[in-house]
Amino acid sequence: TYGGFYCRSFNNSFITQVRDAWFSDEFRVQKKLGLVLEKQEIHFPDELTCAICFESYSRDDRSCGKCGHPFCNDCWTNYIRNYIREGTGPLMIRCPEPSCRAALHQELFDKIATEEQMDRFLSYLIKSFVENQRTIKWCPANGCEFAIDLLDGVNSCDVSCLCSYNFCWNCKEEAHRPMGCDIITKWNENINPDTRTMSRIMMCSKPCTKCKRPIEMSFGCMHMKCRPPCNFEFCWICLQRWDGHRNFYGCNRYGEVTAEREKSKESRKKYLHCCDRWEAHGISRRKAVKDLENLKSQQIKKLCDIQQLSC
What is the pTM (predicted TM-score) of this model? Predict the structure, then answer.
């Protein structure tokens, strides 16, 4: 129990660091953490006033830590509940006496805390332990509560959880070997619905030269006029001002601008092509994983029925 206090004060560091700090100055560490190794023998009367609620309680209805400060059991329970309600503070409950820094020992916690409080506090301890380890991470899959321990000597960054989810250890995205994490990050930034919608708009439209608003060509005329309040008139092919064009169906300034725009259009077509297939394969993969889980459940049930076991 006190070993747990000690390790948490060092953010669950390596055992060598914890051991070295302890043996270098044991008493300093005890004082810093508020560890009381021997219970203070203090004789109280049968009736005692609780220093929190100021009600009188009998000996059986009050408790005290090893520091010797007594409080009624109801106030102890409320104190513990309020302390761990949010789970954002340090995972070391101390005596409620303002002048005391003694840590609440495990025996008193087990006696006072409710089952719900104990379960919640335990989940905080586990979360704190995992998040302070360099070789342990939570599985990022939705609804998964497993943590993965990276074994020594493993060169691959792709890890597999018991829930069948495979992810990259470094960026916690889906396993993407041989692509690097930076490429995956850029890809995810470009596959959001807004980006894809804008790419589809740009496939069949061009920006107004003046206000940059996308304009779609509805008829065969190359003479474009932007909507109010812009009202800018330009050529669909070269995007230059309409002044100087002699007819409505030809442009004498065809050149590098048009070639560059066609190149950009082909690039967007390729991007949308990849996005559509990426989404289709993702749907197929998720369905395959779901089918695999259903198959596992069915097979396990059949094996249990054969072996006459309870599943």
Answer: 0.53
